Amino acid sequence: MNRGFYTVMAAQFFSSLADNALLIAAIALLVELHGPAWLTPLLKFFFTVSYVVLAAFVGAFADSLPKGKVMFVTNTVKMAGCALMFFYDAFAMLGISTHLVVLASYAVVGLGAAAYSPAKYGILTEMLPARQLVVANGWIEGLTVASIIIGTMLGGALVNPRVSAALLSIDIPHFDTGIDTGPEAAILVISAFYLIAAVFNLRIPDTGAKYHDQTRNPLIMVKDFVDCFSALWRDKLGQISLAVTTLFWGAGATLQFIVLRWAEHKLHMPLSQGAVLQGIVAIGVALGAVVAGRTVPLNKSLQVLPVGAAMGLAVMALIFVTWMPLVYFLLVLVGALAGFFVVPMNALLQHRGHVLLSAGHSIAVQNFNENLNILLMLGLYALMIRANFAIDTIIVLFGVFVSLTMMMVIRLHKYNQSREDSLHLIGIEKH
Questions:
Q1: Mean pLDDT of the chain
Q2: Above 90 in pLDDT, residue 195?
Q3: Distance from C-alpha of 375 to C-alpha of 372, rounded to nearest angstrom
Q4: Can you give the three-state secondary structure of the chain, one letter per residue?
Q5: Which residues neighbour 366 within 8 Å (Cβ) at sequence distance 6 or greater?
Q6: Are 52 and 113 in contact (CB under 8 A)?
């Protein structure tokens, strides 16, 4: 791995850390503003909308400039969304709901993240040969999950009443920050991590990869996106890896909120402690990602499919446990299973996308599918919360859905293989 790869990892770490800490701070801000419980999952919903709406355009944008520059610009958009959260009072004076301002602010952060992602992943295929993609993804996913762990725990710590009181007690002579609440103080601290990410973005080297004839006509861009979308879903390996990663990210986003609500209702934990349990799951994902990166070569990636079905079953065991050592073990297990099966699938999808399309366009198609599923699953989860479904019922429905979907994907792969051996496509480059 070259130095540029490690610079990309550092930039990704701090930007992702800030995204995840900001989610917890935004939840705390909604609670401070007396928002109803069903609004909480809509934070992630609003964050994700941009991934779906802009999918046809962000791939072309990522391929139109050096990807380090793309990451810098889009990280700046995230910073703007973070800053917007401070102005909910000003918007309230204009008659705009404070709850809507918080949701819209996090949506702006999502806008930056949507354009950041194709550059972040696409640069891997420009920097590294195909044989190193699983290892690189193991590092990227492991570090991303580490940022989720630390970011989530940081967000939980910053909204802790004692920490909030300490932050609010800081007095800067002759300077009024206008910060009056604990969540606002947390958001101010989090903004510093976006600044750190920006510094690393500026140090990412230009790989020299050029994608010529990038159109600016939106109709042509949509048509190109549809063509890329169809190409990946028609590919026998692309459709399997795309189905798995789509399921994983939808399930993962929903599981974040399930864990928070489960911790509140079953373990009687406040938000600051429930956020720590999210971090425990992420520790498992990091472990699974690292193990997969070291033990699963690209040509064996499809052998991990049954692990996804096992993850769904493991999630359902949550309804039976309240003893904390067992809680920690089970959450780490769920995360490890998830990390172990998604990293090889992600690497395979990136490889097939790079072979069939281009780095930016293939990641944009991947993001569209994954985030459309996040919208659907979070929307269903919000509806179940609003309908007062018991958390145990939600967990069982979630686990059954994940396991059954993975079994269907396994059957599809076996059917594809019975018609034609598609595994030989791994490693075939376009000419």
A1: 84
A2: yes
A3: 5
A4: CCHHHHHHHHHHHHHHHHHHHHHHHHHHHHHHCCCCHHHHHHHHHHHHHHHHHCHHHHHHHHHHCCHHHHHHHHHHHHHHHHHHHHHHHHHHHCCCCHHHHHHHHHHHHHHHHHHHHHHHHHHHHHHCCHHHHHHHHHHHHHHHHHHHHHHHHHHHHHCCHHHHHHHHCCCCCCCCCCCCCHHHHHHHHHHHHHHHHHHHHHCCCCCCCCCCCCCCCHHHHHHHHHHHHHHHHHCHHHHHHHHHHHHHHHHHHHHHHHHHHHHHHCCCCCHHHHHHHHHHHHHHHHHHHHHHHHHCCHHHHHHHHHHHHHHHHHHHHHHHCCCHHHHHHHHHHHHHHHHHHHHHHHHHHHHHHHHHCCHHHHHHHHHHHHHHHHHHHHHHHHHHHHCCCCHHHHHHHHHHHHHHHHHHHHHHHHHHHHHCCCHHHCCCCCC
A5: 121, 232, 242, 245, 349, 350, 353
A6: no
Cα–Cα distances (Å) from 10 to 7, 60, 133, 234, 372, in that order, read 5, 24, 18, 35, 28
Give the model confidence (pLDDT) of 21-36 as tens digits.
999 999 999 988 888 8
pLDDT at 82: 93
> Is 70 exceeded by the pLDDT of residue 428?
no
Query: Is 267 exposed, middle or buried (CB count within 10 Å of its CB: 0-12, 13-18, 19+)?
Result: middle
Which of 145, 378, 372 is CA-nearest to residue 278? 145
The structure tokens 């919360």 sit at 385
Contact 40, 170 (CB under 8 A): no
Q: What is the C-alpha to C-alpha distance for residues 140 and 121, in angstroms, rounded to an integer?
A: 9
Domains, in order of start, for the chain: 3-206+216-425 (1.20.1250.20)
Report the alpha-carbon angle 143-147-149, nearest 5. 110
Can you give the pTM of this predicted structure? Answer: 0.75
Residue 170 token pair: 């800081």
Average the pLDDT over 395-417 and give the result: 92
Q: How far apart are CA 107 and CA 52, in angstroms?
A: 12
Residue with tokens 């429930």: 274
- Between CA 10 and CA 202 the distance in angstroms is 12
